[in-house]
Amino acid sequence: MMNLAPDNNEYKIKAYSSLSTMFITMGDYPRAIEQNNRILAIDPTNESAKSTIQYIQAAQKNAVPKANPNEITGVISDASGNPIPGASVRVKDTAAEAWTNAKGEYKFVMPEESETLVIGAKGYKTIEVTVTKKRVYNATLEK
Per the CB 3.0–4.6 Å rule, which of 6, 49, 93, 96 could disulfide with 36? Predict the structure, then answer.
C-alpha cells in the first residue's frame, strides 16, 4: 500500500497498522511497536497507535513469569566440588522431595512453613539444613 501512493499518509498509516497487526500475531512485539511509532511520526495524535503500544506494553509486562516464593534451587556436590547426580533434597517430615540432575542441580517448590531440608545421596552422609528466607541452598556432602 505504501508503494501505491508514497505521498499518501492515509495509505502509509494503514500499511503500518497492518504490519503492526501481523507482528503482534507473530509475537514480535518490538517490531509491532516500531510500526506504531512510524504511525505516530506521521500522525502524533493517532489514538489507535497509542492504544496499541499501551496494549503491547501491558501484554509484555503481564507475560513475565512470577517467581514462586517457595521455590528453592541449589547444587549438591562432594568435598572435591564435583556435582552429585541423583542426590535427594527433601523437606523433613513431608513428601516434598527433588533429585539432582547430572550437574547436581535441583529445583522444587517446598511447602509453606518448611523448617528443615534433608539432603543425602547413596555413599554420602546425610545432612540437615535449616530453611531460612534464602531461595538457593547449595550443599556439600561428605563420604
Answer: 49
- Which residues have CB under 8 Å from 94's CB, separation 6+? 111, 114
Determine contact, residues 119/140, Cβ cutoff 8 Å: no
**pLDDT over threshold 80, residue 5:** no
Q: Enter the pTM of the model.
A: 0.55
Domains of the chain: 9-63 (1.25.40), 71-141 (2.60.40.1120)
Is residue 83 within 8 Å of residue 141, measured between CB atoms? Answer: no
pLDDT above 90 covers a percentage of the chain that reads 73
